[in-house]
Design goal:
Layout (H helix, E strand, L loop, with lengths): L1 E6 L5 H10 L3 E4 H11 L6 H15 L3 H12 L6 E4 L4 H7 L5 E7 L2 H11 L8 H10 L10 H6 L3 E4 L4 H13 L1
Helix pairs in contact: 2-3, 2-4, 4-5
Amino acid sequence: MIIGLTGKNAAGKGELANHLKSKGFVYFSLSDALREEATKRGLGHSRDTMISLGNELRKKFGNGILAERINEKIKKVRGKKDFVIDSIRNPGEIEELRKNKGFLLIGIVTDEKIRFQRLLKRGRLGDAATFEEFRQHEDRENNDEASGQQLDRCLELADKHISSNGTIEEANKEFDEWFEK
């Protein structure tokens, strides 16, 4: 089984990914594919660099390019059948990942004010410092450009939505209850 995770910045995707890793899922991130490419090119790993690079790769090689790279990695992992894929940000990536038997897309949905507070707590390089800046980043990262990030569209394509407005444990429990059915 392959579980894909999509959602906006600081929604809780990484926390659900960690939960699935604790259950034996092998973890891959489309952002890791971007970081590998940035490193090859001698570029830094800032949020802006990653967004620009992702958009460039999708324009040049197609919207599913990052997922294609992860699919190649999945094929190389022998003996494992459960995977979690994080950082899905374009419908072309979903289309590519749906080529895998048993792929399910989970959308992590969280109120923007909660996400902003989480973002402030984690303090990652390149994260917004004000709510206004946070919203500007959101607008830039969620557009209708074919090769750009289309987070709202990805969330629309999800097979299941998990609310992450509460605690990590509550979101994990919601997922587990759904998953067990």
